Amino acid sequence: MTESIIELAHVWKIFGEGEAAAVAVKDVSLTISKGEFVSIIGASGSGKSTLMYQIGILDTPTRGDIHIKHNKVSDMSESERARVRREVLGFVFQQFNLIPTFTVLENVEIPMVLRDVDIDERKEKARSLLESLELGHRLNYFPNQLSGGQQQRVAIARALANDPEIILADEPTGNLDTKSGAMVFQILEDLHNQGKTLVLITHDPDLADKTEQTIKMLDGEVV
Ligand SMILES: Nc1ncnc2c1ncn2[C@@H]1O[C@H](COP(=O)(O)OP(=O)(O)O)[C@@H](O)[C@H]1O
Ligand SMILES: [Mg+2]
Fold this sequence. Notes:
The protein is of the alpha/beta class. Helix content is 35%, strand content 27%. It has helices at 48-55, 78-87, 104-114, 119-132, 148-160, 178-193, 205-209; strands at 4-15, 22-33, 37-41, 63-68, 71-72, 89-93, 166-170, 197-201, 213-218, 221-222. Helix 3 crosses helix 4 (119-132) and helix 3 (104-114) packs parallel to helix 5. The longest helix has 16 residues, at 178-193. It is globular. The two termini are 25 Å apart.
């Protein structure tokens, strides 16, 4: 019997109202087990990112319940929600979303600054994460001095800074060439093998085939 870590029950997300209402996520129920590697696939506009935003507590569903680690998100206070986002969840996006005026090392330190980690400890942790992702020689570079694949590895290091149990990745290989994309996917597989729960949105059916559960979306619904 595997333990669940994410549960969605009849989750809807509707943008706008009346004639302009757009149903982005339609009555989605699903369970993700602790330590599972799950992919979400579906055409552009099918609701994948919107679904990930609901799971990541970056948005509030119109209807339905989400439980993260058996805690109901809608029952949490705003500060509890922020804590879960910061300490339980790690995010990786297609556009990397690094801060351009911060160095590589500083970008990885940010989540730990928000958690009030002591400066020496947080610099050491950031350095060791970056070294493990083969970026030890780029600590004082700025994001625009790196290749796309390197920038995405910095973003992954940042996502790992607070040791989250769950990694949510929205098309992390979408902007990368095949070789860099394969390296990023290998890193995600390694994290899964270390026990993390991974949710990967991808357009690539070959990558989805390598995961343990594939959730296919069509027009906001899981099919
Ligand atoms: N903030 C928003 N306001 C209005 N409509 C939105 C918003 N975000 C997404 N949508 C709509 O919801 C649908 C699903 O979008 P999205 O979740 O981004 O799909 P995907 O990630 O699968 O490409 C689309 O029709 C999109 O236009
Ligand atoms: Mg999307």
